[in-house]
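Support request from a user on the community tier.

User writes: "When I paste my structure tokens into the form, the page sometimes reloads and wipes my input. The last time it worked, I copied everything first. Here is what I submitted, just in case something in the input itself triggers the reload:"
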């Protein structure tokens, strides 16, 4: 498809039709209605990764304050102040509610579409792009970008732009098209931090894990502590899941965000599980003296299979240690194919946070997972992606 441009209109080209790119297109066309806004993506449909999020239900945001979002963004969260003050969870809720797709709140302040269908979120955004007459070039690959001459070569044609917004994502979920090609292209012009998988399951080779005795067991609102070289690095209270290779679930994913390059450095990593964080050691000790472990598990709604695990471990650990300080060695983390987000990308030092433009190329903006910023799971990453996208679109032709 070749685009016929109105010669009197400026061309805003956006690469990447994920949450950041789509919101950038909506914002750009809203704020600069007399411009051509062209959205490019290699996939057949917009928002391919978002359609898979939340188990297909789409945890689109979190009903929390701007400050909480910053706190839940372990990598360069302060960079987001300007964009979040302009477009945050409140505006996201209003955006979808006003377009017939209200959001509902679940545990841990997570927001989902009332229908519990990710496709409804995608459809609202698709409808808005259509209503604004944003040109969408799907199944289109960007092969080369010339920042000196404001042109790009795609699989279909050569495009010129007055402003370029890069929003093609990082390296997570490569099956959705996140191949990092544009990160490689832009690295010729700005500094790009090395990329690592983040918010990803952790691997343990401990015998109890390898036995698969605990596979599928989930624990709710337990306290998880990550130690690196014996020093406490991070602690969270959230849900977790035992898997055939180790651990997953929201709490574990949050811990993984600080591992980054620990395995490259050959650092020792361990995780402590406190199954009863609302009781101290002495209280648990008293319970164990009065009741069997099986009874304590039942009283506190912990899975029965933990009792089977203790039968295997009891020669090396007391019941109180098992419930309050159960420790595992962490040997690795899963790769980009299971990572929710990418840690690394375009350095925040290369970007003006007030506009999302590159400092050395003010005709180029970047947003979303391409930047070295990531949040925890729970709706935070989609929130910051939409926030950065909206901010980039609003200020692209200032």
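"...and here is what came back when it finally went through:"
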């Amino acid at each position: 498809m070749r685009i016929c441009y109105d010669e009197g209109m400026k061309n805003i080209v956006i690469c990447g039709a994920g949450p950041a790119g789509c919101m950038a297109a909506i914002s750009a066309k809203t704020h600069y209605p007399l411009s051509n806004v062209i959205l490019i993506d290699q996939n057949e449909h917009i928002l391919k990764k978002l359609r898979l999020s939340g188990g297909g239900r789409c945890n689109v945001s979190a009903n929390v304050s701007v400050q909480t979002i910053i706190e839940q963004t372990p990598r360069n969260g302060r960079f987001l102040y300007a964009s979040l003050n302009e477009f945050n969870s409140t505006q996201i809720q209003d955006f979808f509610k006003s377009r017939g797709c209200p959001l509902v709140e679940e545990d841990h302040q997570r927001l989902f579409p009332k229908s519990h269908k990710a496709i409804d979120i995608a459809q609202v955004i698709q409808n808005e792009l259509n209503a604004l007459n944003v040109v969408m070039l799907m199944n289109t690959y960007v092969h080369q970008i010339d920042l000196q001459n404001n042109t790009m070569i795609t699989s279909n044609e050569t495009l010129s732009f007055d402003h370029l917004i890069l929003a093609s994502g990082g390296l997570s979920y490569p099956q959705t098209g996140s191949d990092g090609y544009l990160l490689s292209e832009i690295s010729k012009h700005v500094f790009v931090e090395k990329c690592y998988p983040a918010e990803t399951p952790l691997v343990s080779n401990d015998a109890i894990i390898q036995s698969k005795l605990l596979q599928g067991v989930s624990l709710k609102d337990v306290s998880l502590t990550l130690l690196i070289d014996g020093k406490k690095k991070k602690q969270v209270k959230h849900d977790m899941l035992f898997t055939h290779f180790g651990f997953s679930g929201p709490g574990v994913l949050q811990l993984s965000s600080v591992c980054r390059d620990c395995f490259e450095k050959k650092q020792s990593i361990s995780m402590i599980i406190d199954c009863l964080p609302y009781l101290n050691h002495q209280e648990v000790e008293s319970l164990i003296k009065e009741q069997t472990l099986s009874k304590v598990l039942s009283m506190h709604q912990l899975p029965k299979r933990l009792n089977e695990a203790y039968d295997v471990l009891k020669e090396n650990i007391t019941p109180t240690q098992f419930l309050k300080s159960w420790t595992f060695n962490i040997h690795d983390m899963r790769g980009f194919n299971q990572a929710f987000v990418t840690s690394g990308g375009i350095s925040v030092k290369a970007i003006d946070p007030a506009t999302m433009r590159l400092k050395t190329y003010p005709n180029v903006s970047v947003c979303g997972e391409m930047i070295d910023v990531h949040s925890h799971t729970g709706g935070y990453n989609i929130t910051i992606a939409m926030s950065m996208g909206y901010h980039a679109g609003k200020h692209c032709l200032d």
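Agent notes: The reload is a front-end session timeout and is unrelated to the input. The two ends are 30 Å apart (CA to CA). The mean pLDDT is 95. Escalated to web team.
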